[in-house]
Amino acid sequence: MDEDHRIAADQLRSARWFAPDDLRSFGHRSRLMQLGYAEEEFLNRPIIGILNTWSEINSCHGHFRERAQDVKRGVQMAGGFALEMPSLSVDESFTKPTSMLYRNMLAMETEEMIRSHPFDGVVLMGGCDKTTPGLVMGAITAGVPMIYLPAGPMLRGHYAGRILGSGSDAWKFWDERRAGNISDAEWLGIQGGIARSVGTCMTMGTASTMTAITDAMGLTLPGASSIPAPDSGHQRMSSECGRRIVDMVWEGLTPDRIVTDAAVRNAAIVAMATGCSTNAVVHLIAMARRAGVDLTLDDLDALGRTTPLVANVRPSGKDYLMEDFFYAGGLRALMKQMEERLDTSCLTVTGRTLGENLDGAEVYNDDVIRPLSNPVYHEGSLAVLRGNLCPDGAVIKPAACDPKFHVHEGPALVFDSYPEMKKAVDDENLDVTPDHVMVLRNAGPLGGPGMPEWGMLPLPKALVRQGHRDMLRISDARMSGTSYGACVLHVAPESFVGGPLALLRTGDMVRMDLPARRLDMLVDEDELERRRAAWVRPEPKFERGWGWMFSRHVGQADTGCDFDYLERGHGAAAGEPDIF
Ligand code: FES
Predict the structure, then answer these.
(1) If one looks up domain 383-534 in CATH, what number appears?
(2) Are 525 and 393 in contact (CB under 8 A)?
(3) Where is the Dihydroxy-acid/6-phosphogluconate dehydratase N-terminal domain positioned along the sequence (predicted)?
């Protein structure tokens, strides 16, 4: 950038905390000196907040304490001053009932901690599923220069000469165990081998999908999302984040200049090409709306119909994992290959365009990153269904379900709660056929609560023992990005608020026509009207605390499940009032 366009030190946001000769600023300077810093270290320098979602109970972010030191090294080299701040570590594995209940808490915390502290720029450290959208949503609203540091995928899993993929293989082997085909010793071996390093799930699950989306949107260093967590390149990328954020501050490169309509569209196309997690729909819409970009389910369906799936990475791809994807050239190589479909003029955190960032990128293994002429699937990462069961939409991943279910009609088998469903599927005498359509309701944003990842409903034991491994399933829940099968998800409006799913009864015929994008219950309108009149709204799930607030403000899946009062345009723009 031209020196004339760089901001001056007295224009730094942090100068409002440290420059004035008044009592309040005296206190701020004095308290940094209390921490052992001299004025020379922090005055007239960009102050960089490192928002770190490390915690001892977030196994995916186990390396973040060390990586924060790498970021600091970079900030210092570039003449900035870094302060690390802990952020809510929304981990996917341990959080009950679901981490999604806390995505908006992280988004709100991020926005408020940036707004209320003297940060000129921030490095956001996240990766495990909800941490990426949570951090990015909050930082977009806060509006200071930011760069996203993705945790990176863990190494491939291994057991007894077999390669194991996060999630996908756990579900597969669990079905085999339920069918009596896996011994205790084998199960223990799989348990120890499936997650053998720090880092996020190494299939193209929600974590890798969301970090790829952030990368494609221009919010990470180019290709950063593909670097495996334990790779030394990940440390170097971390220190480069530190160096780069300091320059972004001087350049005034704020997220509103990066997260544009075109950048969001690029991210959606790249998501489709990677065979993204269905969770991408909810989070991408929420992130886009924070930036004032009105991305809809129909936009995503249109892109899903025309974007070939070229990343041969499980679960949508057949053979490979994120480590292979990195060695094959990673996300830069995939985007280079799709360049003609992307808007390469988009500005990125590097200060250069996406096109410039892709210069020199190439594919080193065209079985992992397929050419457009030989994709894994010509279309079908995501499809959006509508019909009398889901007037505001539902989502399915065609590439991950058996094609025989693409057009399917069968009797509904309806469950009102997860425990009820679980009891039934474990009953070997359950009256169920492979044609049945299993339905779980009260699992949406309010009903779950928090829209848990229950959407890959377990197959009834009776069918598993007969050798069946897929059936049509419908819910207002989400499913893990590492899941697979004929699962219709995110039914909106959800049943808990009176969506039509609430009216369905066991035995009603249900029809899905995926090519026509339809999902309907074959029940006549008069009967539905009678059922609607008799429907009773369930009692609220929470009477206090975060859940109470969540229940009052969360939106439905088709609009991204953000809180109404956090959406862009609600009230004044973020900023610290002058009186403080
Ligand atoms: Fe953290 Fe999968 S559990 S990314």
Answers:
(1) 3.50.30.80
(2) no
(3) 45-357
Q: Which of 246, 290, 258 is nearest to 110 (CA)?
A: 290
The strand pair at 81-86 and 121-126 is best described as unpaired
Report the sign of the C-alpha dihedral through residues 155, 157, 158, 163, in that order: negative
For residue 580, pLDDT over 60 is answered with: no
The predicted model gives 200-214 an average pLDDT of 96
Give yes or no for residue 402 having a pLDDT over 90. Answer: no
Span 432-442, average pLDDT: 97
pLDDT of residue 576: 60
Measure the N-to-C terminal CA separation of the chain; round to a whole number of Å.
33
Share of the chain above pLDDT 70, in %: 97
Q: Tens digits of per-residue pLDDT, 142-192?
A: 999 999 999 999 999 999 999 999 988 888 898 889 888 999 999 999 999
What ranges do the domains of the chain cover?
A: 45-155+197-358, 164-193, 383-534
Task: Give the H/E segment covering residue 464.
Answer: helix 461-465
Degrees, nearest 5: CA angle 266-272-276:
115
pLDDT in tens, 473-521: 999 999 987 778 899 999 999 999 999 999 999 999 999 999 999 999 9
Q: CATH fold of 45-155+197-358, please?
A: Rossmann fold (3.40.50)
Amino acid of residue 285 = I
pTM value is: 0.95
Give distance in angstroms: CA of 355 to centre of ligand 1. 31
User: Atom 1 (ligand 1): residue with closest C-alpha?
Assistant: 128
Per the structure block, which two tokens stand in for 542? 């929470």
Report the amino acid identity of residue 219: L
Distance in Å, CA 206 to ligand 1 centroid: 8
The phi-psi region of residue 158 (left if phi > 0; otherwise alpha if psi is between -120 and 50; otherwise beta) is beta
- DSSP for 7-28 reads PPGGGSTTHHHHSSSSHHHHHH
Tell whether the model's pLDDT for residue 23 goes beyond 60.
Answer: yes
What pLDDT does residue 577 have?
55
Pairing relationship of beta strands 383-385 and 394-396 according to DSSP bridges: antiparallel
Sign of CA dihedral 363, 364, 366, 367: negative
At 317 the pLDDT is: 83
- What spacing in Å lies between the alpha carbon of 319 and ligand 1's midpoint? 20
Q: What atom in ligand 1 is closest to the CA of residue 207?
A: 4
For a ligand 1 pocket test, name from 93, 210, 225, 483 the mutation site with the most ligand atoms within 8 angstroms of its C-beta. 93
Ligand 1 mutation pick, 61, 92, 214, 479, max ligand atoms within 8 A of CB: 92
